[in-house]
Specification:
2 domains; two-stranded antiparallel ribbon; binds heme C; Four Helix Bundle (Hemerythrin (Met), subunit A)
C-alpha cells in the first residue's frame, strides 16, 4: 500500500468515527471538540515548524534557484507540512482559542486557504507556485500578528 492510499484509509476511518459520534449526540447540543493547546502552543508545535519547511522549500539567490524540492519524498513531505498548517487554521477557529468571530476568523481562514494552495502546488510539483502561495500564506501570518499581538515583529 503506498503512502497516499494509507492516509486515505486513515481519513475514511476518521470520517466514519465522526459520523458515529454525531449520531450519538443527536438531539443534544454537541461539544465535540476539546481544545488542549493554547494559541502560543499551536504556533510553536504546528504552525512555526511546518511553515518554516514551506518558507525554506524554494530559495532564490541573485536570481538563481539554489534550493527546491527534488525527490517525490521532498514534495510529499512539503505537501504534508502545508496540510498541517491548513488544518492548524481550523484549530485557531475553535473556542477558546478564537479571539473573536471577525478578523480573527478571517485571518485563520486565509491561513487555511493559502496553505491548502501550497499543498496543491506541492502536489503539482510546481516550484513557482510554492513560492507564490507561500508568500500569500505569510501575509495571513503577519496580518493576524499586526492586529492581535502588541509589539508584533
Ligand atoms: C489568526 C491569527 C494568527 C495567525 C493566522 C498566525 N498567528 Fe502566529 N500568533 C498569533 C498570536 C495571537 C500569537 C501570540 C500568542 C501568545 O503569545 O499567546 C502568535 C505568535 C506567533 C509567534 C511567536 C511565538 C512565540 O513562541 O513567541 C510566531 C513565531 C508565530 N506566531 C508565527 C506564525 C506564522 C509563521 C504564521 C503563519 C504561517 C502565524 N503565526 C499565523 C496569531 C496568529
Amino acid at each position: 500500500m503506498n503512502r497516499t492510499s494509507r492516509s486515505l484509509t486513515f481519513m475514511t476511518i476518521g470520517v466514519a468515527l465522526a459520523f458515529s459520534d454525531c449520531g450519538r449526540s443527536a438531539g443534544q447540543s454537541p461539544e465535540p471538540f476539546r481544545a488542549v493547546a493554547s494559541v502560543d502552543e499551536v504556533m510553536d508545535g504546528i504552525i512555526i515548524p511546518s511553515s518554516q519547511v514551506i518558507f525554506d522549500a524554494v530559495v532564490y539567490s541573485n536570481g538563481e534557484l539554489i534550493q527546491a524540492p527534488k525527490t517525490d519524498d521532498d514534495w510529499f513531505g512539503l505537501r504534508l507540512h502545508a496540510l498541517a498548517v491548513a488544518e492548524a487554521g481550523n484549530l485557531l477557529l475553535m473556542p477558546p482559542r478564537a479571539k473573536d468571530s471577525g478578523d480573527w476568523s478571517k485571518f485563520s481562514r486565509e491561513l487555511t486557504d493559502a496553505a491548502a494552495d501550497v499543498a496543491r502546488a506541492a502536489e503539482a510539483k510546481d516550484i513557482e507556485r510554492v513560492l507564490k502561495t507561500g508568500g500569500t500564506m505569510y501575509t495571513a501570518c503577519t496580518g493576524c500578528h499586526e492586529k492581535y499581538i502588541e509589539d508584533a515583529p
